[in-house]
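Board notes (copied after class):
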Amino acid sequence: VTHILTFLDMIGHRFSEFKPSEQSGKNKFDELLNIFQQLLLMTSGDVSQAMSWMNQLDRDYKLTDDQYGMGDFLDDLKRKGYITEENEEGQVVMTPKSERSIRKSALEEIFGKLKRSKSGGNHRTPYTGVGDELSSDVRNFQFGDSLEQISMTESIKNAQINHGAEDFYLLENDLEVVDKEQKTSTATVLMIDISHSMILYGEDRITPAKKVALAMAELIKTKYPKDMLDIIVFGNDAWQIQIKDLPYLEVGPYHTNTVSGLELAMDLLRRRKTKNKQIFMITDGKPTCLKEGIRYYKNSFGLDRKIVSKTLTLAAQCRRLDIPITTFMIASDPYLKQFVQEFTRVNNGRAYYSNLKGLGGFVLEDFQRNRRKNLK
């Protein structure tokens, strides 16, 4: 039992004993849903496997009680639209609502300390002109101003002052306009390594990478709606995935074709009209693969000179195009750090040697730093 100080009125205070309500905080369904969503990411969206693990956890740690059992939780998941069996195979699968809920949960977990700004998270510059949001600045009409910018209230008031109210007419020098604040947008490509090493040595590295990608996707959708986010996965090859695919992402028996990932990232950014572009790469290993025509050139034994040279060439190309690359290396090998340092120097980007726990904070920090740096 805790005690709180309760302010009753302007006269004084009353000390009273506070007993928390049994309904305060999360209810049982919300608590179980949080665990279930974590397991869905670990099982790459396999609902049956996640529920099997939930039952195992319930046996070991008594997640449920006599009032609310795991069967009740499963029924609630169906009733509330998180899972469904209405598909051709008749299997229990996630719904779009469940996918959205996982993104929101990842955002809260990874970027939970992010404070909302009064501007709603749009990127502003100190320049004014044709934009999306009215500012508080009013000025005289100039050739080229749009009709939408004219402040009718101020303009009519000027006309009355300048010409009198009885014989009303409006001239160009009576017009005043409201400036609009110019906003900028940023195009980001997030590259995720799905080579086999992301699950080697008993450490699950792909799940934290997926969480970061989900959190970034939800952050951009809610806080930076004018931004663009493309997500790439790379193993022997590289290909683009959609946000809805992230929970189902799996590691494959792949080498690490960093070159293919960078080429695809540059191609996607080339299509974006905004000047502000950046690449984030989450990986735990060295580049070990190139594709030459239909043949794969592979070498997992050390840093291959041919592969490294091609990778550094692309890093230099990104620098010339003013595309910074932020590398998040989930590894501690000294020779790998040496490669990343050279890669970062050539690109003039940034690098972090992060453990899995601190990955989200580093991504958010550089995501915002690059945005401020690149505003034009």
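Comment from the instructor: The first helix runs from residue 28 to 42. Residues 1-25, 114-133 have pLDDT under 50 and may be disordered.
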